[in-house]
């Protein structure tokens, strides 16, 4: 498994925050730092996104708008995980991102019938940001918010919403296996060294 590939499958807001994983030197990477990276990430999320968001080529404005939402979600989640009050500016930022591209039901006459077609108004970048801000509000205000956890692997900063209360890692194949292998090595390392010394 590619350690640099973004994890997907959590709520959209958590997947967005998880596009800033830790690097081996302790910094944070940005997996959606360029329009092509964002395009790849949106393609991986396509089945959960409205077509208007993922079927166009992302621009630098999209990257900037999504980075702002990611920073706000990260600030709110950080506060929740530490049991503190979320920053007012982050809460306001999520509201403003939604307000910049509200979702409306537009009436259209199609095949002899009136139909309501949901669409967002606002710039394409604002529409993209609004989708993720809206998901963040739903996740952060829902019953699952109190269950969100940070991966227990020592060098991982990714978040997840566990389906099972005993889940400890962002991914069993990424951090779970690596942690288990490291523990096994630590337990068996002294015995291996003793064997070499006595031989």
UniProtKB/TrEMBL annotation:
<dbReference type="Pfam" id="PF11706">
    <property type="entry name" value="zf-CGNR"/>
</dbReference>
<dbReference type="InterPro" id="IPR021005">
    <property type="entry name" value="Znf_CGNR"/>
</dbReference>
<dbReference type="Pfam" id="PF07336">
    <property type="entry name" value="ABATE"/>
</dbReference>
<dbReference type="InterPro" id="IPR023286">
    <property type="entry name" value="ABATE_dom_sf"/>
</dbReference>
<protein>
    <submittedName>
        <fullName>CGNR zinc finger domain-containing protein</fullName>
    </submittedName>
</protein>
<feature type="domain" description="Zinc finger CGNR">
    <location>
        <begin position="148"/>
        <end position="188"/>
    </location>
</feature>
<dbReference type="InterPro" id="IPR010852">
    <property type="entry name" value="ABATE"/>
</dbReference>
């Amino acid at each position: 498994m590619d350690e640099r590939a973004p994890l997907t499958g959590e709520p959209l807001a958590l997947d967005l925050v998880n596009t800033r994983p830790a690097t081996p030197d302790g910094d944070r990477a940005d997996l959606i730092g360029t329009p092509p990276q964002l395009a790849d990430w949106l393609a991986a999320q396509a089945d959960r996104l409205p077509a208007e968001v993922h079927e166009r080529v992302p621009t630098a404005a999209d990257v900037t708008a999504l980075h702002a939402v990611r920073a706000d979600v990260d600030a709110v989640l950080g506060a929740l995980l530490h049991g503190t009050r979320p920053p007012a500016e982050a809460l306001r930022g999520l509201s403003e991102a939604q307000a910049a591209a509200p979702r409306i039901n537009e009436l259209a006459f199609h095949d002899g019938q009136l139909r309501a077609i949901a669409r967002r108004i606002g710039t394409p970048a604002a529409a993209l940001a609004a989708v993720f801000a809206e998901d963040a509000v739903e996740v952060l205000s829902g019953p699952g918010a109190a269950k969100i956890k940070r991966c227990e692997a020592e060098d991982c900063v990714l978040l997840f919403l566990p389906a099972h209360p005993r889940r400890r890692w962002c991914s069993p194949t990424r951090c779970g296996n690596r942690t288990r292998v490291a523990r096994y090595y630590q337990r068996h390392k002294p015995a291996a060294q003793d064997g070499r010394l006595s031989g």
